[in-house]
């Protein structure tokens, strides 16, 4: 009965139990746990050597050795592959295997008892603990490397203020030997003026269980005191009070001196701003004014409190305040500069014109606005007077142009009458004068010259009226071909060759009438002043200057000319260098006028008898 009860207990025991009988170690008894471990292929009476189940071969060898020697053996955390169960994949679990020999009454070994205890959970926990310990050591080593390589002094101290650790940087900075008593030396290296404050702040923080952040001067190895920023935080383990503080010392000497210099610079700038007879102000990133110079109060007659954060807007004309405020809000939102011309009220109630400008500056302190209101009332009124005078002069000039243009046309009729009368006299009257033919030729030339002069005068006035023609993007080759089409008769008569090279700068933003006039005058002059001993060759080339501005060059092989030294007054109206060639002397004057009126200039290079080169810089004054 007792044996049955023992078998029942062993059968339901969570640990595996098996008996191995005889020298060949046959399975004698297998409880439920051991049967599940070894698998269904193992049964009582079988030899363990032939049917080891999940037992590895080396463990089977150990079983035989224990049987022979009679020495018990324990295999810790032995990994055994469990057989597949209910269609699940086979897995390995860890077992502590205990091998105990069994003796009979004569103390002879009759077999073994095998115990298998599942320690998988404990082994996994041990492995995790081991991994965590390794990771902790790795992180600790990394943290130590980091703390000892950063350009800061790191430290740890306890609640009593005793330093438990300080990084090597402290010894490098102070020049103290590693054997020095850290807790005794450290306070002595603090500047005497800062020592009491530092000790008090440190003690207070430790008593209250809080961190600290303060600056003080610490003596360096060369004897200089350098400003240091000390920061520390307590090591908290709730609900206990902190027992350690960990922190760092950072040298801020240069930053402190720079900050002091900035403060001095700001004070000097404010003094300078207060000395300027102009309204100077600054504003926050949101556009609210936080500073007015002294002159602003004098000009407005208001205090800084009365001016408020939008003071300069309130000083404007009431009907302009909304417009100025919208423009200011737009500038603040986009960061674009603010600029406007407004009338501002002075302390005596008079409104004066001011240019209001503001620019945004962004630095380490964030965006800020700097503005100024400049009194330009006298200049504005002077400009109005000058504008009236300019308008008067322009009107007078237009009237004069109209008079000249009308007079040139009105004089044509008397010229036609004179020419008709002269033709009638030449047809019907005779003179007994040996120089009759010469006189008649001279009169005819004079009439022809007068006619040409009147036509050129009218054309000059007409071209000058077109100096302000609107600019448009023009195709240089197309305009040139139109001009050459108008000069086709002269080109064919002279046998001239014209080369047009405008691929490098094919377009030009210019007035259409101005460009046609310039090209017509230069090309017609090149044909008119051709050398009598060779056919004309004319080259028109457009290219870009070093400053990326368009340039036009017109070159011929004609008679050449004398170029005056003063290029700004090179060509005057009705001035001619080749009297034998017909003309009025206004073509080059017109070219020069058109160029200078649009911010350009004309360069001339010429050799008498060889030719002339005109270089037109369209937009270089």
Automatic annotation (TrEMBL):
Question: Under which main EC class is this enzyme filed?
Answer: transferase
Q: Is Transferase included in the keywords of this UniProt record?
A: yes
In which domain of life is the source organism classified?
A: Bacteria
Q: Cite the PAC domain residue spans from the record.
A: 212-264
Q: Give the originating organism.
A: Hymenobacter aerilatus
Q: Using the record's annotation, list all stretches that form the PAS domain.
A: 265-336
Q: A GO molecular-function term, please?
A: phosphorelay sensor kinase activity
Q: Which PANTHER family match?
A: PAC DOMAIN-CONTAINING PROTEIN, PHYTOCHROME-LIKE PROTEIN CPH1
Q: What is this enzyme's catalytic activity, as reactions?
A: ATP + protein L-histidine = ADP + protein N-phospho-L-histidine
Question: Which parts of the chain are coiled coil?
Answer: none
- Name of the protein: histidine kinase
């Amino acid at each position: 009965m007792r044996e049955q009860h023992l078998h029942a207990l062993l059968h339901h025991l969570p640990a595996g139990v098996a008996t191995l009988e005889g020298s060949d170690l046959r399975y004698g008894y297998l409880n439920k746990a051991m049967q599940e471990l070894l698998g269904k292929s193992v049964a009582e009476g079988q030899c363990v050597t032939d049917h080891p189940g999940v037992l590895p071969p080396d463990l089977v060898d150990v079983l035989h050795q224990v049987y022979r020697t009679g020495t018990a053996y324990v295999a810790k955390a032995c990994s055994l592959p469990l057989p597949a169960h209910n269609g699940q994949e086979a897995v390995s679990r860890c077992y502590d295997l205990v091998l105990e020999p069994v003796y009979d009454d004569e103390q002879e070994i009759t077999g073994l008892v095998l115990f298998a205890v599942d320690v998988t959970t404990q082994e996994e926990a041990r492995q995790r603990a081991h991994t965590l310990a390794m990771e902790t050591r790795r992180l600790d080593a990394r943290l130590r490397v980091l703390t000892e390589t950063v350009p800061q002094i790191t430290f740890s101290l306890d609640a009593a203020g005793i330093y438990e650790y300080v990084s090597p940087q402290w010894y490098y900075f102070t020049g103290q030997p590693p054997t020095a008593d850290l807790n005794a030396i450290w306070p002595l290296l603090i500047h005497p003026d800062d020592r009491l404050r530092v000790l008090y702040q440190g003690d207070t923080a430790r008593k209250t269980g809080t961190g600290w952040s303060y600056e003080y001067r610490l003596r360096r190895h060369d004897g200089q005191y350098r400003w240091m920023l000390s920061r520390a935080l307590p090591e908290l383990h709730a609900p206990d009070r902190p027992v350690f503080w960990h922190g760092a010392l950072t040298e801020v000497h240069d930053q402190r001196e720079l900050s002091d210099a900035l403060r001095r610079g700001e004070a000097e700038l404010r003094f300078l701003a207060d000395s300027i007879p102009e309204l100077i102000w600054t504003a926050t990133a949101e556009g609210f004014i936080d500073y007015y110079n002294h002159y602003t109060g004098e000009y407005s007659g208001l205090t800084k409190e009365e001016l408020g954060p939008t003071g300069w807007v309130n000083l404007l004309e009431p009907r302009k305040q909304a417009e100025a405020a919208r423009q200011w809000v737009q500038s603040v939102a986009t960061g674009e500069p603010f600029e406007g011309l407004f009338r501002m009220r002075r302390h005596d109630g008079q409104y004066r014109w001011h240019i209001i400008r503001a620019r945004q500056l962004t630095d380490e302190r964030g965006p800020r606005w700097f503005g100024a209101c400049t009194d330009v009332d006298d200049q504005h009124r002077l400009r109005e007077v000058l504008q009236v005078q300019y308008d008067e002069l322009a009107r007078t000039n237009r009237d004069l142009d109209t008079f000249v243009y009308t007079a040139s046309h009105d004089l044509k009729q008397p010229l036609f009458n004179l020419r008709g009368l002269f033709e009638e006299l030449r047809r019907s009257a005779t003179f007994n004068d040996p120089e009759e033919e010469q006189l008649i030729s001279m009169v005819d030339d004079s009439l022809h010259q007068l006619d040409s002069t009147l036509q050129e005068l009218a054309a000059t006035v007409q071209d000058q009226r077109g100096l302000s023609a609107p600019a448009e993007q023009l195709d240089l080759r197309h305009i040139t071909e139109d001009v050459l089409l108008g000069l086709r008769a002269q080109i064919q008569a002279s046998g001239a060759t014209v080369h047009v090279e405008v691929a490098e700068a094919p377009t030009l933003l210019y007035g259409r009438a101005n460009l046609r006039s310039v090209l017509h005058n230069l090309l017609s002059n090149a044909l008119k002043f051709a050398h009598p001993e060779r056919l004309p060759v004319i080259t028109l080339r457009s290219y870009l200057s070093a400053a990326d501005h368009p340039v036009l060059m017109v070159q011929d092989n004609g008679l050449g000319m004398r170029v005056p030294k003063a290029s700004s007054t090179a060509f005057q109206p009705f001035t001619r260098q080749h009297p034998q060639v017909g003309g009025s002397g206004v073509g080059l004057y017109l070219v020069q006028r058109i160029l200078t009126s649009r911010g350009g200039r004309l360069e001339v290079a010429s050799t008498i008898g060889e030719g002339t080169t005109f270089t037109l810089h369209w937009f270089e004054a």
